[in-house]
What does this fold into?
Amino acid sequence: MKPQRVKLDPIARRLGRWTDAEALHTLIADNLADGHLLPRHRDELAIHASRFTVAIHRGRVIGCAELVPLSPTRAELRSLAVDATFRGRGVGSDLVADVQQRAQAAGFDELCLMTHAPLYFGQLGFSIVPHQAIPEKVATDCVRCPKLGSCGQLAMVLTLEAAFARSERAVDTSIHGARRLVLIPVHAA
It folds into this structure.
């Protein structure tokens, strides 16, 4: 049976709160059947709720996406889920765009993800890379996964403009219109 479409009232997006943990857990659990997400524990979601962007419709969480720092230069987009009745309305791509903006603002150079939907993320600018190209992800999650080597997920990355944004901040023009170089520490990867 095809999910019934809901008349679209405005959808708000905001950062997650610990009080969203139950709704996040339900949304992620509802999307597990597709085989595209890994299960998450309620306690973990409550602890990390502020890393999520949530989409809200009529006071209810109808979508989520998490921004997970992996290294000083790379973050992961994970747990992207949208309520079935709201799919095909741009909610997921809006959540991805929000996570991308947050990652860029935080100074990350790259956003990565693991997915069974490379065409979807390819349309959003991500490129397929070998799993070895994101060793932080493999070392933190993949090695503990029971589906290691057989999950069928593809690794994808999106290069952010964070490096350019940092270089723009390095030039301060506030003093008499003169350009002055401000040194910003660079962390080796």
About this structure: Residues 169-189 have pLDDT under 50 and may be disordered. The radius of gyration is 18 Å.
